[in-house]
Amino acid sequence: MDFKQFYLSAVGRVNRKQWWLYLILPVFIISIVASIIDAASGHDPQQGIGPVSAIFSLLVLYPSIVVYIKRFHDRDKSGWWVLIALIPIIGAIWLLIECGFLKGTPGPNRFGPPVTD
Predict the structure, then answer these.
(1) Helix ranges restricted to H, 41-50
(2) 115 domain residue, yes or no
(3) What pLDDT, in 10s, does the model give residues 61-92?
């Protein structure tokens, strides 16, 4: 799966390993770097999110949603399950467990064949 297919298309499936390595880890690291840049440029964290962090958050929003949809596809669930994130606290916990720790369906499902690394 190429970069464009992985981050910009909601078609297909993404396994747990890809989710952690190609979405969560890079977003986490870049978020830390963006926060450091904001702090170094004199932004006060008590005033809210800094400009670099805000721009990064907006840039990563669509690709994140797409990868979450494909992760739910791997679990043989509709991409609409991403909306569970809108439920405060419980939604985030549900997403972490569902996407980060539970295996996808073995073999092909209605969203396509399983992803091999």
Answers:
(1) none
(2) no
(3) 999 999 999 999 999 999 999 999 999 999 99
